[in-house]
Amino acid sequence: MKRILILGASGTFGKALVKRLCDSDKNYHLTLVSRHATDCYDDNEQCHVGDCDAMEVENLRYMMKDCDVIYCAISGRYLPIVADNIVSAMKETGVRRLIFMGAVGIYDEIPLNMDDEDNVRNNPEQVPNREAVDIVENSELDYTILRPGYLQDGDKEDFTLTFKGEQAKGYISTISSVVELAVRLIDDDMLYVCQSISITKNMSDK
After folding, report:
1. Could you tell me the pLDDT band of residue 206, with boundaries at 50, 70 and 90?
2. Distance between CA 62 and CA 168 in Å, rounded?
3. pLDDT, tens digit, for every residue of 17-70?
């Protein structure tokens, strides 16, 4: 049984990931955490639900107990503090595997001819995403950074991957495609380990 802590479980992406994992025939145990997780979920044999403020490292340490994988789907201006707390709590509890969601554009990788307004140099709201990812990349944990674009409904096969140092192929992502990659990363501890991946629709030919 793989034990997964999902931070930000009550957000749009968090809910989609939880549903996908709960519908799977694989043996997962989920710890579902957000500030209002108990408003969205009930405890059952597969899921433990807890209200937790990731700004408090003590809360994270408690929730991480006995987990194998930490999945962070939190966003917002305080994300660098959250990232620092996650890294500290993981090191204290001995958990190694972290899957952390950033955003495409944090390395200024969206091409100018594709509308680069969401590159960090143009969009101050990207600064917390970049700072948080820097913390994770320097953590010495077994991390994978996922960098989706704007999330929307769509085909789970409608995606392309690029890696840090490469130009992104788009700035829009389907929720289902990111969910499917997230599940692959949860299942395989060595998949894209210590890498930062952009997952978007391929808009480069449009």
Report:
1. low
2. 37
3. 999 999 998 999 999 999 899 999 999 999 999 998 899 899 899 999 889 999
Instruction: Please indicate, yes or no, if residue 189 is contained in any of the structural domains.
Output: yes
Q: State the residue range of the domain holding 101.
A: 2-200
Are 33 and 9 in contact, with CB atoms under 8 Å apart?
Answer: yes
Tell me the whole-structure pTM to 2 decimals.
0.95
Question: How many distinct structural domains can be found in the chain?
Answer: 1
Q: Do you know the residue count of the chain?
A: 206
- How far apart CA 50 and CA 52 sit, in angstroms, is 6
Q: Which residues, including other chains, have CB under 8 Å from residue 111's CB and lie 6 or more apart?
A: 167, 168, 204
CATH of the domain at 107: 3.40.50.720
Q: Whole-angstrom Cα distance, residue 84 to residue 204?
A: 35
